[in-house]
Amino acid sequence: MDVLASSDPPSSGAFKPELSAALDPLLAFLSKTGSPFLVNPYPYFAYQDDPRPDTLAFCLFQPNAGRPDAGSGLTYTSMFDAQVDAVRAALDAKGYKDVEVVVAETGWPHSGGADEAGASVENARAFVSNLVSHLRSMVGTPRMPGKSVDTYLFAVYDEDLKPGKASEKSFGLFQTTLTETYPTGLMRNGTAGLAPAPAPTVRPASPPPAIPQVTPVQPQPSAASAATAPPRHVRSAAELPRTISALHVSACF
Predict the structure, then answer these.
(1) 162 is catalytic
(2) Which Gene3D superfamilies does the annotation name (predicted)?
Protein backbone atom coordinates (compact mmCIF):
# COMPACT_ATOMS: atom_id res chain seq x y z
CA MET A 1 0.00 0.00 0.00
CA ASP A 2 3.03 2.29 0.30
CA VAL A 3 2.97 2.78 -3.47
CA LEU A 4 -0.07 5.03 -3.05
CA ALA A 5 0.39 8.77 -2.71
CA SER A 6 -3.28 9.14 -1.74
CA SER A 7 -5.94 6.70 -0.54
CA ASP A 8 -8.45 8.73 1.50
CA PRO A 9 -11.07 9.04 0.22
CA PRO A 10 -10.76 5.93 -1.97
CA SER A 11 -11.69 7.80 -5.14
CA SER A 12 -8.54 9.90 -4.74
CA GLY A 13 -6.34 6.81 -4.97
CA ALA A 14 -3.16 7.57 -6.92
CA PHE A 15 0.30 6.08 -7.21
CA LYS A 16 3.35 8.01 -6.08
CA PRO A 17 4.75 9.90 -9.09
CA GLU A 18 8.33 9.08 -8.14
CA LEU A 19 7.59 5.37 -8.65
CA SER A 20 6.44 5.76 -12.26
CA ALA A 21 9.71 4.50 -13.71
CA ALA A 22 9.18 1.17 -11.94
CA LEU A 23 5.39 0.96 -11.90
CA ASP A 24 4.55 1.97 -15.47
CA PRO A 25 6.36 -0.94 -17.20
CA LEU A 26 5.10 -3.31 -14.50
CA LEU A 27 1.48 -2.29 -15.03
CA ALA A 28 1.90 -2.47 -18.80
CA PHE A 29 3.23 -6.02 -18.41
CA LEU A 30 0.32 -7.03 -16.17
CA SER A 31 -2.17 -5.61 -18.65
CA LYS A 32 -0.52 -7.37 -21.60
CA THR A 33 -0.40 -10.76 -19.87
CA GLY A 34 -3.80 -10.56 -18.16
CA SER A 35 -2.18 -10.73 -14.74
CA PRO A 36 -3.48 -9.13 -11.52
CA PHE A 37 -1.93 -6.40 -9.41
CA LEU A 38 -1.24 -7.83 -5.95
CA VAL A 39 -1.54 -5.62 -2.87
CA ASN A 40 -1.30 -6.12 0.90
CA PRO A 41 -4.00 -4.04 2.62
CA TYR A 42 -3.94 -4.28 6.42
CA PRO A 43 -6.80 -2.48 8.21
CA TYR A 44 -4.99 -3.29 11.47
CA PHE A 45 -2.20 -0.85 10.65
CA ALA A 46 -4.75 1.77 9.63
CA TYR A 47 -6.30 1.37 13.08
CA GLN A 48 -2.87 1.81 14.67
CA ASP A 49 -2.70 5.24 13.05
CA ASP A 50 -6.19 6.18 14.27
CA PRO A 51 -7.09 4.09 17.36
CA ARG A 52 -10.61 5.36 17.94
CA PRO A 53 -13.60 3.08 18.70
CA ASP A 54 -15.40 4.04 15.50
CA THR A 55 -12.24 3.31 13.49
CA LEU A 56 -12.00 -0.13 15.10
CA ALA A 57 -15.57 -0.96 14.08
CA PHE A 58 -14.82 0.30 10.57
CA CYS A 59 -11.75 -1.95 10.39
CA LEU A 60 -13.49 -5.06 11.77
CA PHE A 61 -16.53 -5.00 9.43
CA GLN A 62 -18.70 -4.19 12.43
CA PRO A 63 -21.73 -1.88 12.37
CA ASN A 64 -20.70 1.75 11.90
CA ALA A 65 -22.02 5.00 10.49
CA GLY A 66 -20.06 4.60 7.27
CA ARG A 67 -17.69 7.01 5.60
CA PRO A 68 -18.92 8.88 2.51
CA ASP A 69 -16.61 9.46 -0.41
CA ALA A 70 -17.48 12.86 -1.85
CA GLY A 71 -15.47 12.18 -4.98
CA SER A 72 -17.49 9.12 -6.02
CA GLY A 73 -20.71 9.54 -4.05
CA LEU A 74 -20.14 6.08 -2.52
CA THR A 75 -20.27 5.20 1.16
CA TYR A 76 -17.81 2.81 2.78
CA THR A 77 -18.51 0.67 5.83
CA SER A 78 -15.19 -1.18 5.99
CA MET A 79 -11.53 -0.19 5.81
CA PHE A 80 -10.77 -3.27 3.70
CA ASP A 81 -13.11 -2.13 0.92
CA ALA A 82 -11.79 1.42 1.14
CA GLN A 83 -8.18 0.26 0.78
CA VAL A 84 -8.94 -2.08 -2.13
CA ASP A 85 -10.96 0.59 -3.94
CA ALA A 86 -8.17 3.14 -3.47
CA VAL A 87 -5.90 0.79 -5.40
CA ARG A 88 -8.63 0.29 -7.99
CA ALA A 89 -8.93 4.06 -8.40
CA ALA A 90 -5.15 4.39 -8.81
CA LEU A 91 -5.14 1.72 -11.52
CA ASP A 92 -8.07 3.36 -13.28
CA ALA A 93 -6.34 6.74 -13.19
CA LYS A 94 -3.35 5.15 -14.93
CA GLY A 95 -5.63 3.72 -17.62
CA TYR A 96 -5.41 0.10 -16.46
CA LYS A 97 -9.05 -0.71 -15.86
CA ASP A 98 -8.42 -4.21 -17.22
CA VAL A 99 -5.91 -5.11 -14.48
CA GLU A 100 -7.62 -6.92 -11.62
CA VAL A 101 -6.78 -6.31 -7.96
CA VAL A 102 -5.84 -9.34 -5.85
CA VAL A 103 -5.22 -9.17 -2.11
CA ALA A 104 -1.99 -11.11 -1.59
CA GLU A 105 -1.93 -10.56 2.17
CA THR A 106 -4.24 -9.36 4.90
CA GLY A 107 -4.76 -10.35 8.49
CA TRP A 108 -4.99 -9.25 12.11
CA PRO A 109 -2.65 -10.10 15.02
CA HIS A 110 -4.12 -12.08 17.88
CA SER A 111 -1.69 -10.63 20.42
CA GLY A 112 0.74 -7.75 20.80
CA GLY A 113 2.58 -5.48 23.15
CA ALA A 114 1.07 -3.03 25.61
CA ASP A 115 1.54 -0.22 23.10
CA GLU A 116 -0.23 -2.07 20.26
CA ALA A 117 -3.90 -1.21 20.44
CA GLY A 118 -6.33 -3.71 19.02
CA ALA A 119 -4.00 -6.73 18.85
CA SER A 120 -6.18 -9.34 20.54
CA VAL A 121 -7.80 -12.70 19.93
CA GLU A 122 -11.25 -11.11 19.95
CA ASN A 123 -10.36 -8.56 17.27
CA ALA A 124 -8.45 -11.06 15.15
CA ARG A 125 -11.42 -13.42 15.21
CA ALA A 126 -13.82 -10.60 14.34
CA PHE A 127 -11.70 -9.39 11.43
CA VAL A 128 -11.02 -12.77 9.84
CA SER A 129 -14.49 -14.25 10.31
CA ASN A 130 -16.21 -11.05 9.12
CA LEU A 131 -13.83 -10.78 6.17
CA VAL A 132 -14.60 -14.37 5.16
CA SER A 133 -18.33 -13.69 5.41
CA HIS A 134 -17.93 -10.49 3.40
CA LEU A 135 -16.03 -12.26 0.63
CA ARG A 136 -18.45 -15.19 0.53
CA SER A 137 -21.41 -12.83 0.21
CA MET A 138 -20.07 -11.75 -3.22
CA VAL A 139 -21.34 -8.24 -2.51
CA GLY A 140 -18.00 -6.83 -3.59
CA THR A 141 -16.74 -3.34 -2.83
CA PRO A 142 -18.61 -0.08 -3.47
CA ARG A 143 -16.47 0.60 -6.55
CA MET A 144 -16.51 -3.05 -7.72
CA PRO A 145 -19.90 -4.45 -6.68
CA GLY A 146 -21.15 -7.95 -7.35
CA LYS A 147 -17.87 -9.84 -7.26
CA SER A 148 -15.50 -11.03 -4.60
CA VAL A 149 -11.86 -9.97 -4.51
CA ASP A 150 -9.44 -12.90 -4.49
CA THR A 151 -7.90 -12.71 -1.03
CA TYR A 152 -5.08 -14.54 0.75
CA LEU A 153 -4.94 -14.52 4.55
CA PHE A 154 -1.74 -13.95 6.49
CA ALA A 155 -0.59 -16.20 8.02
CA VAL A 156 -0.86 -19.95 8.53
CA TYR A 157 1.36 -19.98 11.64
CA ASP A 158 2.90 -17.49 14.04
CA GLU A 159 6.47 -16.37 13.34
CA ASP A 160 8.01 -16.47 16.79
CA LEU A 161 11.53 -15.78 15.48
CA LYS A 162 10.49 -12.75 13.44
CA PRO A 163 12.10 -9.49 14.62
CA GLY A 164 10.05 -6.47 15.54
CA LYS A 165 7.04 -5.89 17.71
CA ALA A 166 5.09 -8.69 19.34
CA SER A 167 2.16 -8.25 16.95
CA GLU A 168 4.42 -8.93 13.96
CA LYS A 169 4.93 -12.46 15.26
CA SER A 170 1.26 -13.16 16.01
CA PHE A 171 -0.76 -13.36 12.82
CA GLY A 172 -1.01 -17.17 12.80
CA LEU A 173 -4.39 -18.75 12.13
CA PHE A 174 -3.25 -22.18 13.33
CA GLN A 175 -1.11 -23.68 16.05
CA THR A 176 1.57 -26.21 15.22
CA THR A 177 -0.80 -28.81 16.72
CA LEU A 178 -3.07 -28.17 13.70
CA THR A 179 -5.75 -26.52 15.84
CA GLU A 180 -7.11 -23.08 15.06
CA THR A 181 -5.77 -20.19 17.12
CA TYR A 182 -9.35 -18.93 17.18
CA PRO A 183 -12.52 -19.83 15.23
CA THR A 184 -12.35 -18.27 11.78
CA GLY A 185 -15.22 -19.78 9.82
CA LEU A 186 -12.72 -21.22 7.34
CA MET A 187 -13.03 -24.86 8.36
CA ARG A 188 -16.07 -26.87 7.32
CA ASN A 189 -15.82 -29.30 10.22
CA GLY A 190 -13.74 -27.36 12.71
CA THR A 191 -10.19 -28.52 13.03
CA ALA A 192 -11.04 -32.22 12.98
CA GLY A 193 -10.34 -32.31 9.28
CA LEU A 194 -6.76 -31.26 9.92
CA ALA A 195 -5.80 -34.35 11.93
CA PRO A 196 -3.02 -36.40 10.39
CA ALA A 197 -4.33 -39.06 8.04
CA PRO A 198 -4.26 -42.61 9.44
CA ALA A 199 -1.62 -44.93 8.08
CA PRO A 200 -2.93 -46.99 5.18
CA THR A 201 -3.71 -50.64 5.78
CA VAL A 202 -1.56 -52.84 3.63
CA ARG A 203 -3.13 -56.15 2.69
CA PRO A 204 -0.87 -59.13 2.07
CA ALA A 205 -0.43 -59.75 -1.60
CA SER A 206 -2.27 -62.76 -2.96
CA PRO A 207 -0.36 -65.11 -5.22
CA PRO A 208 -1.23 -64.61 -8.89
CA PRO A 209 -3.49 -67.27 -10.40
CA ALA A 210 -1.75 -69.98 -12.31
CA ILE A 211 -1.84 -69.49 -16.04
CA PRO A 212 -2.21 -72.71 -17.97
CA GLN A 213 0.43 -73.30 -20.59
CA VAL A 214 -1.08 -73.77 -24.01
CA THR A 215 1.06 -74.78 -26.95
CA PRO A 216 -0.53 -73.41 -30.11
CA VAL A 217 -0.67 -75.62 -33.12
CA GLN A 218 0.74 -73.84 -36.12
CA PRO A 219 -0.84 -74.77 -39.44
CA GLN A 220 1.61 -75.98 -42.03
CA PRO A 221 1.33 -73.93 -45.21
CA SER A 222 1.44 -75.69 -48.49
CA ALA A 223 4.51 -75.30 -50.64
CA ALA A 224 2.64 -73.10 -53.12
CA SER A 225 1.24 -70.69 -50.53
CA ALA A 226 4.57 -70.47 -48.78
CA ALA A 227 6.21 -69.47 -52.00
CA THR A 228 3.68 -66.76 -52.91
CA ALA A 229 2.63 -65.28 -49.55
CA PRO A 230 4.36 -61.98 -48.62
CA PRO A 231 6.55 -62.06 -45.56
CA ARG A 232 4.66 -61.21 -42.35
CA HIS A 233 6.14 -58.84 -39.77
CA VAL A 234 5.92 -60.23 -36.27
CA ARG A 235 6.56 -57.71 -33.46
CA SER A 236 9.35 -58.75 -31.21
CA ALA A 237 9.07 -58.79 -27.45
CA ALA A 238 11.16 -55.60 -27.34
CA GLU A 239 8.74 -53.70 -29.58
CA LEU A 240 5.60 -54.45 -27.59
CA PRO A 241 6.53 -52.54 -24.41
CA ARG A 242 7.44 -49.47 -26.46
CA THR A 243 4.00 -49.43 -28.01
CA ILE A 244 2.26 -49.72 -24.65
CA SER A 245 4.42 -46.95 -23.17
CA ALA A 246 3.61 -44.61 -26.05
CA LEU A 247 -0.10 -45.19 -25.59
CA HIS A 248 0.21 -44.60 -21.88
CA VAL A 249 2.05 -41.31 -22.33
CA SER A 250 -0.50 -40.12 -24.87
CA ALA A 251 -3.30 -40.89 -22.45
CA CYS A 252 -1.57 -38.90 -19.71
CA PHE A 253 -1.18 -35.88 -21.94
Answers:
(1) yes
(2) Glycosidases
- Range 4-174 has CATH code 3.20.20.80: yes
End-to-end CA distance of the chain: give it in Å, rounded.
Answer: 42
> Is 169 assigned a catalytic role?
no
Active-site residue identified among 162, 169, 180, 239: 162
Q: Which of 97, 105, 169, 180 is catalytic?
A: 105
Tell me the per-residue pLDDT of 202-222, one tens digit each, with 9 for 90 and over: 666 666 666 656 555 555 555
Phi first, then psi, for residue 191 (nearest 5°) are -100, 5
Q: Of 97, 159, 165, 239, which is the active-site residue?
A: 159
Q: Give the pLDDT confidence of 15-40 residue by residue, as tens digits.
A: 999 999 999 999 999 999 999 999 99
The proportion of the chain whose per-residue pLDDT surpasses 70, expressed as a percent, equals 74
Domain ranges for the chain: 4-174
The DSSP element (H or E) to which 39 belongs, if any, is strand 37-39
Q: Is residue 180 annotated as part of the catalytic site, yes or no?
A: no
For the question of residue 122 being annotated catalytic, the response is no
**CA–CA distance, 118 with 166 (Å, rounded to integer):** 12
